[in-house]
Write a structure and sequence with these properties.
Layout: E1 6-7, H1 9-16, E2 21-24, H2 27-32, H3 37-51, E3 55-62, E4 65-68, H4 72-80, E5 85-87, H5 92-97, E6 102-104, H6 106-116, E7 120-122, H7 133-136, H8 141-146, E8 152-155, H9 164-173, E9 178-181, E10 200-202, H10 205-217, E11 224-227, H11 238-254, H12 262-273, H13 277-307
Parallel strand pairs: 1-4, 2-3, 2-7, 5-6, 7-8, 8-11, 9-10, 9-11
Antiparallel strand pairs: 3-4, 3-6
Helix pairs in contact: 3-13, 10-13, 11-12
Amino acid sequence: MMKQTRIANEIERALRENRPVVALETTLISHGLPYPANIETALDCARAISEQGAAAATIGIVEGQPTIGLNRNELEAFATGKEILKVNRSNLAAAIVQGRWGATTVAATIHLASRAGIKVFSTGGIGGVHRGFSETLDISSDLTTLTETPIITVCAGAKAILDLAKTLEYLETVGVPVVGYNTTEFPAFYTRSSGLELETVVSSPDEIAQLAFEHWHLGNRSAVLVAVPIPEEAELAPAEIDRAIEIALEAAKQAKLAGKAVTPFLLSMVEKLTEGRSLQANRALILNNARVAAQIAVALTELEKALDPS
């Protein structure tokens, strides 16, 4: 018998009382950051969200049970576990039926979050169109899920190891609004600038809340992607990160890696090549995004209450 989604009491109460909630993923804990940086970052994000007046709901699959609002012991298990499955939309059902521990990607997380009524999600960077797409046809299910999931997704752009121009083009084609938060360019994850201009720029959480509300009021069912540049003090030199990515991509090609194994390999190698600087940058942008997401969640909740006082 399949297990129903378990929602932590704090999160269930917040949703019932129409209080702001921010969803967080577990893939960055299990597959994106090394221990103990992963658990420290997860706890820092939850704390930052709480300080802004929202509740943090970290999402994962615990022994086959979709869980919204992981407790400390469960977070530790995701941070240290060696057999944690990376779960996207395609293998979510299998993880549940087989009773697995599964770290949810952006796609799986926003799918579960939206079904629970959560309207804001924070991550580091979304997946996208991989470099060399014409040969591999490798495109993240994050993108397709964003097209059909009404949730504000806060990120520092797409991961820098991807083809950012094609990723942005895809999002525009399928009607997912990409909004620059105090930036006129699509951020490049480790760096603030990509050279890719954004049409829509906003400067406050209130404006994002209004834009998302109107987008959905018009009948759209897609996400609203909010692109937040990495804090200036944490930004890496473009030349350094570009060189590291080139070397990592060539190594992945030589190793004939494909599918889910590619991104963790590339991120790990880039960390080594930058002597840990990319890890520090990654942690800084994840925390900054969580803080911004919480502010947006508060603004959206206040807007909804103002429009429907009941």
